[in-house]
Amino acid sequence: MGDEVMICPGALLLEDLTPRATTPDGRRKGPEDWNRHPVTIGTGATIGAAAVIAPGVTVGPHALVALGAVIMRDVPAHGLVIGNPARQVGWVCRCGHRLDAALRCTDCPQTHRRDGDELAAEPQPVPLE
Fold first, then answer.
1. Is the Cβ–Cβ distance between 104 and 111 less than 8 Å?
2. What letter would DSSP give residue 48?
3. Residue 128, pLDDT score
4. What does the alpha-carbon distance between residue 92 and residue 110 come to, in Å, rounded to a whole number?
5. 129 pLDDT above the threshold of 80
6. For residues 51 and 66, what is the distance between their CA atoms, to the nearest angstrom?
7. Is the pLDDT of residue 35 over 80?
8. N vs C: which end of the chain shows fewer Cβ within 10 Å?
9. Residues 48, 59: Cα–Cα separation, whole Å
């Protein structure tokens, strides 16, 4: 879990790929019987209320998972995903607002650039005094 992460009420982060209460021989499963596949949440990401994230999935930095979304695969940095199963429908700024077609924030002056399948914020110029 990165810094500045928001996990809303009712969100589930799962980590067992093969959930069962008992082993194949009928014995109750204990902690030693689980093969953990933890979810990774990047810095500044938001997981909406009642979202479900499958084992081993990575949600990138500053990504936004909509409420009730079911995440079965990795979400890129700044990705906006919705639905069941979730699909990417756009990009979001670090401030949480959606980006326009030119990858500019609709609320703050931040601009972004594509880096392969990922998005990165452009450095902001330092104002001269």
1. yes
2. -
3. 67
4. 11
5. no
6. 7
7. yes
8. C
9. 12
